[in-house]
Structure prediction request, 110 residues.
Amino acid sequence: MTAHTYLASCLLALGVLFVAWSLQHSQPLAGLLVFALPPALLLAALWRGWPRAGFTAALLALLWFSHGVMLLWSAPAERHWAAAETLLALLVIHAACLPGWRARSRHEHR
Prediction:
């Protein structure tokens, strides 16, 4: 699996998680706009070849990670959603950083 496909898969999974999570609430539109829309837009940007899509995804993943950790501590009823969000945010960061890590390791081995 390429880093591009890995990042796209992580963003898709995060978007699906946010859609499912938002539909559990009485006002799903707010959750869909605030949480599900950004991964979907980043996925579209990644597919269209925007060079900063990975960087932007990693930055937003830091916010998703923080949100997930906050809910893990403060909202016991939503702990399973928050744990999935936290894990997927870490995977997005890993996927976004993977091309740089690979390039650096190739450069160091020369």
